[in-house]
Structure formats: C-alpha cells, structure tokens
Amino acid sequence: MARFENPVSILHPRVAAARRDFVSGRITRREMLFRASMAGAGAMTLAALGGLKVAAQGTPEGTPAATGEVGYSIQVPTDLRTDLGGTSIRAVLADAGNVDNDWHDAAIAKFTEATGIIVERVPGEQSATDRLQNYRQQFAAQSADLDVYQIDVIWPGIIAPFAVDLTEAVSATIGDYLPALVENNTVEGSLVAIPWYTDAGLLYHRTDLLEQYGLTVPTTWDELTTSAQTIQDGQLATNPNFIGFAWQGAAYEGLTCNGLEWQVSNGGGNIVEADGTISINNEQAIAAFERAAGWVNTITPQGVVNWQEVDTLNNFVAGNVAFARNWPYMFSASNAAASTVAGNVGVSVLPMGSGEGARNAATLGGWNMFVSTFSTKQEAAIEYTRFMASAGVQRSFAIEKSHTPTLVPVFDDPDVASAQPFISELRDVFTGGAVARPSTPTGENYAEVSAVYYQQLNAVLNGSTTAAEAVANMETDIDGIMSGL
Ligand code: GLC
What we know:
Blueprint: H1 13-23, H2 29-38, H3 43-50, E1 88-95, H4 101-115, E2 118-124, H5 128-140, E3 148-152, H6 156-159, H7 179-185, E4 186-187, E5 190-191, E6 194-200, E7 202-206, H8 207-212, H9 221-235, E8 243-246, H10 253-265, H11 283-295, H12 309-317, E9 321-326, H13 329-333, E10 345-348, E11 364-371, H14 378-388, H15 391-401, H16 408-411, H17 414-419, H18 421-425, H19 427-433, H20 439-442, H21 446-461, H22 467-482
Parallel strand pairs: 1-2, 1-3, 8-9
Antiparallel strand pairs: 3-11, 4-5, 6-11, 7-9, 7-10
Helix pairs in contact: 1-2, 10-11, 10-21, 21-22
C-alpha cells in the first residue's frame, strides 16, 4: 500500500498569515480567501483553503486543509541555555515515514538557532513493540549512540534504570503537567521522562457519509457495527476497497490498546487490576472479543490482523473508510492538503459496550522525553527535552499536528481550541478519563504481559482460537510471568 506522505506545503507568507488569522477567528473565511487571492495564491491553494471547516454543533469537522509554513507556531522558551553551542546530540523521535517529521525538522532548526546545539533526528521503529526491543538493545550495550529517546507512557517501569533523573530540568513548570502523567513517569523518586504529548483512542467518522446515509455518530459498538455495514454496503457499489470500520489488529502493542478499549467499554476489567489481581478471564471480556472477531471479514477486511495505525491512516485519507479507531494525530493528518477527506472528518469518544459496567473507554497513550544515562552529552540532551516538552512547543504540536498536550495551561490556549476544537471538547478524556494499560501493577514485566495479551487476541481475530480459550490462556500465562516462572 502506498504510504501517506505529509506534504510540505510552502505557502506564500501572506496566504499563511491569512490562514492563521482565519483559524484563530480574527477574520472570516471570505476575507481569508480574498487576502489569499490578492497574494497571488493559485487555484489549488484557494480550493484547499476554502475547505477549512470549523467545528459545527459540538462535533469537530475539520482543521486546516492546508498548513502554513510548518513550525510557524513554535514559540521557543526563553530560558534555554546558550553556553552549549556546537554540541551535537542524536535524538530518536518518530518513524521514518511519519507525518510529523516536517514539524520535527522545523522544531530542531528553531532549537539550534536559539541554543547552538545541533540535533540529529534519528528515525525510530514504527511499532512501539519493535521500538522497545531496539531501545533495550541500546541499553544492554550501554550505547552512547543516542542521547534523547521518545518513550512510550507504558515504559517508565521498564527503562527507569537507564534514565537521567529530569526532576531538576522541569522543576519550574512541574506543577503545570498533568499530575497522573508525572506520577506515571516517576519511579523511585526519579522523573524518568518528561511528559510530551498524550494520546487517547478516538472514533473517527466521515461527516459527509453519515449525512449521505442519514446516520448519526454511533454511541454503542452495536450501533457502530450496523452503521458501518450500511455505509460499506452502499459504498462498495462504486469503491471495491471500501471498509466500514478500520482499527489496529496486528500482534503488537497497538492491539493491546484496542483490546483494552473493547473490554473496558464492555465492563470487562483492566486485564490486571491496580492491586495485581489478574482479572482477564471473565464473561464480559469474552463477549467484547467475540464482538470484535465478528467485525473481521464483515465490516473490516481480514487483513486487519496485520494492521497498525499507519494502515488505518492510509486507508482513511484515501477515502476508503467510514469509521476508524486511531489516536488524535489522525485528525490533523486526515485534514492535511493531501488527504482526500479533508474537511469531512469528525471525531468523538469511542462507543460503549453492553452489560453491567458498560461505559465509554479510551486507552491512554502518549510519549515522553527521556535522556539516557549512557549519553556523554547529557546537558545538551536535557536542554532539548526541556524545549520539546515546553508550553510553546506543545502548543505548536497541538495546533499544527493535533497532538494533545500534557501541560494543563496549553489546553486553555485559545489558538489550540480554535485550530483543534476536539482537544477542548474531549478534554476530560485527555486529562484523566482515559484508561491506563496495566503497566504500573505489572512494572518491569509489562511488555511480556502485553505480548501474551496481543498474541492471544490476534489469534481470536484470525479465527485460530476462541475468545474463551484466549482469556484462559492469558490468565495462565500472565500469572506465570508475574510469579517469575
Ligand atoms: C501510540 C500511543 C502509545 C501506544 C502506541 C501503540 O503511539 O501513544 O502509547 O503504545 O500507539 O501502537
């Protein structure tokens, strides 16, 4: 499948300024288009700008279809050190084809301009599972090759022994970070990583297709199943590749995120509870997994058993998907100029299951800035992590790439709210409502526990085991891991 490449759109500065004024509510769409045309914008640009849509009736329906110069909204903190100029560090950030990379390069350029520190951006693995394996190899080899790592919210308990304590680095602003994330990242009194952006699973839909088929945003999984089938049946007449519902079913960390949402929303518990009880073997989790297995080969193609987030994104921006489960970044990526669905994207909380304890559930995800104890340039590395996790940079990552902040004041920023209305509308989900994977009760064993879970669940999805067998196997194997067997 062709990768979705984020276009680096280079707009005339006056067009970009008009676009910014529109997004922040200072001028009307008409004025923006007029100013853009006066600046000599071509028909394509004007068409793209015309596609800008602001939230309607509580449901965000699109952010900029065209971006300004990438990185335009970055505000460089004023307290960065300037005495480390000429130091070169290496930071492992997004994967090679990631839609954020143009922004990363712009951010690095601003950081270097302010500090003189040179940052080489090193692409990481796309899958969180593969990436952890690579990071573990780096640490096992005591490698000084990489100075800064972006680390997943589920890893502090695993990689704490290799972390520089960043408590001092953010002491001035620590009270502004979401307390649950600071707690998550603190291991034995050390701040293992600075919270950088937060993630929560969301339901995306095509506003134009819901309208065309006279449907509303589904609030239960059963309703989603029926609506996805209706739209898929209709669209298949003209698009043989059409998919009712796209999600992540490959055997990797992303499936743990999807699976947790299915079972928690169905009252099926958190796999391993906060007190260490292994709760996975229960009827409501079985029912949730059976429902998901029923999507395969009906509203979702069989290939989903190999899909990660990028596959969902690629299919969605190609216009082949009615509903999708993905993280916040897809809102910006699917409204970018190269997306065929720009302006027709809605986002909401994921649906509820059924039975006792049914609720809406979003898995908590997110990434953090970490400095390796094996780095020989820790001071420069710390400055870069402070920069990346600062308010002015988080604000920009939210405005331009729809990454949800970890700093409470950034949620209140009016430019964030106008560029990405869903961030304020779903604020409760991002600031405490999302469900954590059991990385705290399982500690350093989390990755192994998650691997058992996603492998068994993947087997249910591909039909090689039943949901009842899978949860029994999960229970036995997780118990073995936790007892050190
Ligand atoms: C996103 C989340 C991360 C999660 C991963 C799974 O990157 O932020 O927490 O582990 O997806 O694919």
